Amino acid sequence: MSFLQLFILSIVQGFAELLPVSSSAHVIMAEKLMGLDPTSPELTMLLVMLHTGTMFAVIVYFWTSWRATYFSSATALRSNVLLLAAATAMTGIVGFGLLKGITHIMRKDTPGFEIEHLFGNAQLMAAALAAAGILIIASSRLKARDGGTLSLVKAMVIGAVQGLCLPLRGFSRSGATISTGIAMGVPQRSAEEFSFALAVVLTPAVLLKEGWRFYQAMANGSLDHLQHGNSMLHLLGPSLLGMLLSFLAGLLALRWLSHWLERGRWHFFGGYCLLASLVVLYLG
User: Fold this and answer.
1) Which residues contact 101 (CB under 8 A, 6 or more apart)?
2) 265 in helix, strand or coil?
3) In 3D, which of 106, 101, 95, 122 has the Cα closest to residue 33?
4) Burial profile 223-236: b = 16 or more Cβ within 10 angstroms, e = fewer
5) What pTM did the predictor assign?
């Protein structure tokens, strides 16, 4: 992989991961346009590092506001931990249930099928992008319906919606969760903070899963060309650089997202998702 390809993937991941436009769809299409295989273990490893960079960007960006709300008192901490735990549990139930169900069904017709095989399907990504765009636009029309706060039930609904995003590349996690919160009357800032707090809770599990897939690829000989120490260092160096670039891009993306939420421009992201779905469908 050239430096230019690494730079493009890092910037695309950094912006698209934190904006409600689906990083997976953008990164996969960018890889395809550059002639890279989005299902290869090497690119999986790079994506793990890029996700790590954006996770640190989220922590740095929201730390001050989280400290003022989530850690303001012992009572607030217990309440918010309960909300995050309930939402994450729902994500696990819905998300991993879907992953197992899809894998079980597909393996009947395609022995050896893995969920990663769907990641490059342009039709599925286009449909998921369109669904995310419609949800974002709809939520922007419903945001003034209720002035409520984030309750346990609402947190669980948001967690369930996040679970739907796990197997559906193109169905933006941040777009879906923030939109769901806004549609249920959660204040925009609270919906944004909760969505990205969920991301920080969920990301380590996703990183471990992808890291395990990379390890298995090495164990079964798929990465024999990387077994030598120099080859591994050759892979690690660009990955660390990519993590730094995605971190910086992520900080800029979060500033953009917050600005548009505050200015009532949330629906613009929905319009972009609809347009992007057509582009993905055409390029795919």
Assistant:
1) none
2) coil
3) 122
4) beebeeeeeeeebe
5) 0.84
